[in-house]
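Minutes, project huddle
Topic: does the predicted pose make sense with adenosine-5-diphosphoribose bound?
PN asked that the exact inputs be recorded in the minutes so nobody has to dig through chat later. Recorded below.
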Amino acid sequence: MKKIVVLTGAGMSAESGISTFRDAGGLWDKYPVEDVATPEGYRRNPQLVTDFYNARRMQLLTVEPNEGHRLVAALEERYEVTVVTQNVDNLHERAGSTHVIHLHGELTKVTSSLEPNNPQYIRELSPEEYEVHLGDCAEDGSQLRPYIVWFGEEVPAIEVAADHVMQADALIIIGTSLNVYPAAGLIQFTKSDAQIYLIDPAEVRVPYGLPVHVIKKGASQGMRELVALLDGE
Ligand code: APR
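Predicted holo structure (tokens), as shared on screen:
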């Protein structure tokens, strides 16, 4: 069975009503990235950062996976699929994808602020717990922090993601500006004969000058066209 890796970014969830980061009016326009997505920002103003992630967690309760997420999940009927996502939402899982690697963490999880990557301290929140408070503690007694990879922090899942990309017959990239490394660098691990597809309504600069089949559409329409293309093969 053919193996497909789907690498997704914020544009994957745009049609579900979740803002992207770098488009005009995107999240980083409203909230300076150094304030809400760095360890220094958290140390400077933990309340602001806690409020920011609480709001994003609550938003999860109001949004649904879109057709693009569902078509990605449906690929599993015919291929061995690994989704590698930069998104911290849970929409791929809710659409039915069963193998999802979150490079930048997950909104629905919290962890220790001393040892954020220690699996012992990573905990899934139930929706009733989505509002985290300063003073809530992890198992090691430290302040509970979002299980989110902030800028400047290591990306522990990158190696296993790269292993999957190395074995893939096709890489499908959806809704990412490919600005952020190491995620954007995953494309370099593709086999020389792997097909690379890119679905995005905007022009995206592809690193390493690799040949890419571009579908310049939104996630849902782009996935419809890609499925038709794969059907024809
Ligand atoms: N369908 C598909 N793609 C879309 C859509 C849509 N409906 N709408 C917008 N896009 C595209 C944009 O054209 C852009 O190329 O989604 C991309 C979003 O890019 P970014 O906002 O830069 O998001 P992303 O690439 O996921 O950011 C990577 O940066 O800030 C950090 O940790 C954060 O995971 C994030 C990482």
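Observations noted during the meeting:
- The longest strand covers residues 105-112.
- The mean pLDDT is 96.
No decisions taken; revisit at the next huddle.
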